[in-house]
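Supplementary Methods. Inverse-folding protocol.

Structures were first reduced to a discrete structure-token string of length 232. This string, shown here, constituted the complete conditioning input.
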């Protein structure tokens, strides 16, 4: 019975995430993705946004690790730490997510030396700062919901970007590494976050969970929208 209840709660949390993503139009009306799918996104402009997104990838595991430290329950910490470890390629430096993203940048002709020269845009710093605040200072449910829904959405975003860069002729399919990986694994990462919230959701403590999911969808949608507007 408890297993059925947990499964039901997890399904409801996931459904809420789906509804929040759909309501925001993250994958349907955000100009970053509509232009990418329509092949009306200038290639150089796209590269500039992806250079900046590297700094979001590089930063992402830091608030996640801080969030794990806030849980006295080792099982909850373990679920988050599993994500942190995978962000670090299961301790294989060549598989660090920052490394695989640098490989993607190389595939779209971004010199890696450029990453040492460019400044972080405020659009990305704002995104990183919201993640830090939600994970360190807000209710833990807000942090978990926020990080979980970003992982959840990034699976579909990765599949969309992967298809688009191949269809637009910017990257050969066999060279697509980072986005192919995240299209495959991030739904599982998200489920690990959402599972932490199951007992609270089942007991009716849903306000901060919804707040976290809504915040994650908002700030992710805003990041991509703002990146697009910056270069157009």
């Amino acid at each position: 019975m408890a297993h059925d209840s947990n499964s039901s709660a997890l399904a409801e949390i996931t459904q809420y995430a789906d509804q929040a993503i759909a309501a925001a139009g993250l994958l349907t009306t955000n100009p970053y993705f509509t232009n990418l799918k329509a092949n009306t996104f200038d290639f150089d402009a796209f590269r500039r946004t992806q250079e900046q997104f590297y700094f979001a990838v590089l930063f992402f595991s830091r608030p996640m690790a801080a969030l794990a430290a806030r849980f006295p329950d080792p099982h909850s910490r373990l679920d988050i730490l599993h994500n942190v470890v995978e962000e670090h390629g299961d301790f294989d430096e060549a598989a660090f997510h920052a490394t695989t993203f640098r490989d993607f940048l190389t595939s779209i002709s971004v010199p890696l030396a450029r990453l040492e020269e460019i400044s972080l845009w405020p659009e990305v710093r704002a995104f990183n700062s919201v993640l830090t605040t939600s994970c360190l200072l807000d209710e833990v449910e807000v942090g978990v919901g926020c990080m979980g829904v970003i992982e959840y959405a990034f699976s579909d975003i990765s599949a969309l970007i992967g298809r688009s860069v191949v269809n637009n002729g910017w990257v050969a399919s066999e060279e697509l590494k980072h986005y192919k990986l995240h299209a495959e694994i991030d739904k599982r990462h998200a489920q690990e976050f959402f599972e932490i919230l199951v007992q609270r959701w089942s007991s009716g403590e849903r306000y901060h969970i919804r707040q976290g999911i809504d915040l994650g969808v908002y700030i992710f949608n805003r990041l991509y929208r703002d990146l697009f507007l910056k270069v157009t």
